[in-house]
Amino acid sequence: MKTRYDILDGLRGVAAISVLVYHLFEAIAFSVSAPEQHFYHGFLAVDFFFVLSGFVMGYAYDERLADGSLTSKGFILRRLIRLHPMVVMGVAVGLVCYFIQGCTLWDGTHLTWLQILPALVLALFLIPAPQHLDIRGNYEAFPINGPHWSLFFEYIGSLAYVLLLRRLPLRALKWWVGIMGVALFVNAFTSEYNSIAYGWSSEPYNLFGGSLRLFFAYPAGLLLSRLFRLRNPAPTKLPAFTLSAAAIVVLLAVPSLTTLTGVRILNPLYQCLVVSVAFPAIVWFGARGVVDGNFRSAVGFVGRLSYPLYAVHYPLIYLYIHWLMIGAQPFGPLPWATPVCLFFIAIFLGVVSLLCYDEPLRRWLSRKVQKGSAEKAHQG
């Protein structure tokens, strides 16, 4: 039996909590039309997720798919069971928060059920909404729950892995990562955003930029897993989780270097180096780490919480933006009261979703699939 990378699971949780903090600061910036926010590079957590996914997919499934103990169809079904229950929950939370907000575009225009329904159906099937179906007025690909754009790309990454990437020999995979890395750098340096922060919008150039982020980071993680197996590095005696978690938080919290220095190229250069060098190094170092005892349980729980938290937190951010724009203070007059309360509400919502919905439903679905497979094999 393969050893579980507990530290990598925990790092996913650290990144998810960092995304929550990033989005709380983003809400404040959006509400006052500020060009930047205080946790500036938090969006790079998505690229860390992609690197981590590639590494875990290669580690968990390369050999099983190669020897036939798991079919491509079985892999896709596993990914659907793993990912889609929380997609549905995220849409449900997003819809509830949208109704609390008043079913309006950002300019205050009220929308009817018939106008909302197409975006809802597309969201349930994780299909990007075209611009004419945008129910917020910000050109989001998933206007009911914005961060679902990265789950859409996660699905694409899983399909690319099982259909193509896993079949590539090591040399070809290195070429893929190198070419996509160059494309990512070029796109970042020529970007009107002065950033790699693409993927969230339904605009074609934005989806293209998101695709570059995926098709560099995901294969890079897969390449990393193969090199890790080949070299089989010894476990480190350093506190791998603590050091890796601190590195992630620091890297995501770095402010806009362009604003600090006036040099436009520094932001995309920093972001590309973090994605192509720092994140793979953190994953490699984290994979070498070991945690024991109660700390292992805590790290594991943070890892389990990561996906439900990521999937359901952003509708609360929509509400926060709405309250900021209309001057409402539902949690008291102190300026920090609302974001702090929303932080803990998001954590609570993530925990409830994990324990009362996601894990029980996935266990039930897995048992159904196993039972169906056993009956089919028996009949055969």
Structural class label: mainly alpha
The percentage of residues in β strands lies in: under 5%
N-to-C series of helices and strands: HHHHHHHHHHHHH
What's the end-to-end separation, in Å?
A: 29 Å
Q: Which range best describes the helical content: under 10%, 10-25%, 25-40%, 40-55%, 55-70% or over 70%? A: over 70%
Taken together, the total number of domains comes to 1
Number of strands: 0
| Number of DSSP helical runs | 13
> Quick check: average pLDDT?
93
What shape does the CA trace take?
Answer: globular
- Which regions contain 5 or more consecutive residues with pLDDT less than 50? none
Calculate Rg over CA atoms. Answer: 21 Å
Biggest pleated-sheet summary: none
Q: What can you see in these coordinates?
A:
There is one protein chain. By secondary structure, the protein is an all-alpha fold. The protein has one domain. The protein is 71% helix and 0% strand. The chain has 13 helices and no strands. Helix 5 crosses helix 7. The longest helix is centred in the C-terminal third of the chain and has 43 residues, at 337-379. The protein is globular. The two termini are 29 Å apart. The mean pLDDT is 93.
Short structural description:
With 380 residues, the chain is mainly alpha-helical. It has helices at residues 6-31, 45-66, 72-101, 113-124, 148-163, 170-189, 204-231, 240-253, 257-261, 266-287, 293-312, 314-326, 337-379. It has one domain.
